[in-house]
UniProtKB/TrEMBL annotation:
<dbReference type="InterPro" id="IPR036291">
    <property type="entry name" value="NAD(P)-bd_dom_sf"/>
</dbReference>
<protein>
    <submittedName>
        <fullName>Dihydrodipicolinate reductase</fullName>
    </submittedName>
</protein>
<dbReference type="GO" id="GO:0009089">
    <property type="term" value="P:lysine biosynthetic process via diaminopimelate"/>
</dbReference>
<keyword id="KW-0560">Oxidoreductase</keyword>
<dbReference type="Pfam" id="PF01113">
    <property type="entry name" value="DapB_N"/>
</dbReference>
<dbReference type="InterPro" id="IPR000846">
    <property type="entry name" value="DapB_N"/>
</dbReference>
<keyword id="KW-0521">NADP</keyword>
<dbReference type="GO" id="GO:0008839">
    <property type="term" value="F:4-hydroxy-tetrahydrodipicolinate reductase"/>
</dbReference>
<feature type="domain" description="Dihydrodipicolinate reductase N-terminal">
    <location>
        <begin position="5"/>
        <end position="102"/>
    </location>
</feature>
Length: 360
């Protein structure tokens, strides 16, 4: 591709600073930006990036259709919410304007097993208009391609066990409450743990109906099975409360969590496959005690047994860099909702983005 890749940014909060910065540093041309926050709308994106004016003003999200028609971006980076239901409108306006789109939304990495109706509708829309939609970010590499690459050094695998932790204090009150932080154990069991004994068929039906929202690892296990060619026989999820032996203050919740009450939870997804490989993956979200920190740990059991640990990952920066490095592949991909398990392995770009694009 001879010209620069033209990029739009949808959602101009915390993540966007890194997304736009990394894309521009890799030689992309930023042509549009959108948000719903009146405090951000009207700003030059240079103010968000902490540099001089760049000549791109943040527009209201509801004007995306009009702005896309005048700027014709090749791709849009979406950094807004965490579910496909919340992403449907942004993905749709991109597709209808033939703009490829990639999202930081955790569910969007592999939404086929959690929001199948929405994903099929978006897939059809993207194919109709000839563009590609997908999700990426930290899970794409640190829960995905890093694990499948590691698997390629195994002679035999019987089980894949993964765990990733995060401090709910960093992500707002809604997420903290969703993880049961501050509840008594009895309250936790009534409000969150009440689905733990459901069968694979029962929980799968509730997920498809949108009654039950599974954890990020539900999608990740689907991604891993798809990438590795595994056939899912059953999949279940259990939510287990975490506690601490001392009182723990939460700034996000505005309360002190009493010793023995829930500081958060583990959502453990177990997937059995026809090939005999079990996946047991866990995401841990809680109010951290002083000595705790983010950790990503995976073990492959079999021959040989191998463990990889990443301590204190810079999740935001890693998410944004992963997405920017995926841009050429997304532009070159076939039309539709193409989750990254179907794309080539990502790579670090030593040249400008447009030099890696073949289709434009």
């Amino acid at each position: 591709m001879k010209r620069k890749v033209k990029v739009a940014q949808y959602g101009c909060g915390k993540m966007s600073k890194y997304l736009m910065q990394y894309a521009v540093e890799k030689g992309a041309e930023l042509v549009a930006a959108f948000d719903m926050n009146s405090a951000i709308i009207g700003k030059d994106v240079g103010e968000i990036l902490g540099c001089g004016p760049m000549g791109v003003i943040v527009s209201p999200a509801d004007q995306a259709d009009r702005v896309f028609k005048s700027t014709n971006p090749d791709i849009c980076m979406i950094a807004t919410r965490s579910t496909m239901e919340e992403l449907k409108e942004a993905f749709s306006v991109c597709a209808k304007n033939k703009v490829n789109a990639i999202s930081t939304c955790e569910e969007s990495l592999y939404p086929w097993n959690s929001s199948p109706v929405i994903t099929k509708d978006l897939d059809a829309l993207a194919k109709e208009y000839g563009c590609t939609l997908c999700g990426s970010g930290y899970p794409d590499l640190f829960w995905g391609t890093m694990i499948t690459n590691l698997a390629a050094s195994s002679a035999r695998i019987t089980k894949i066990k993964g765990s990733s932790s995060y401090n709910v204090e960093d992500y707002g009150i809604a997420l903290a409450q969703g993880h049961g932080a501050g509840l008594t154990i009895a309250e936790f069991e009534r409000q969150i743990g009440n689905y733990n004994d459901l069968s694979s068929e029962e929980i799968g039906a509730l997920v498809e109906e949108g009654v039950y929202i599974p954890s990020y690892m539900w999608n990740q296990n689907g991604w891993l099975c798809s990438r590795m060619g595994l056939t899912v026989v059953s999949q279940t999820q259990k939510c287990i409360p975490h506690t601490y032996d001392k009182d723990l203050h939460s700034e996000t919740l505005g309360m002190t969590i009493k010793a023995g009450d829930a500081t958060g939870m583990s959502a453990i997804v177990t997937t059995e496959t026809a090939e005999g490989i079990t996946l047991e993956t866990e995401c841990i979200g809680k109010v951290y005690a002083p000595e705790e920190f983010d950790k990503n740990q995976w073990t492959l059991y079999g021959e040989p047994e191998t463990t990889i640990i990443v301590n204190r990952p810079a999740t935001v920066e890693l998410t944004c860099a992963t997405i920017v490095n995926r841009l050429p592949q997304l532009i070159d991909a076939e039309p539709g909702y193409i989750s990254t398990d179907k794309l080539p392995y990502s790579q670090y770009m030593v040249k400008p983005i447009h030099e890696y694009v073949k289709s434009l």
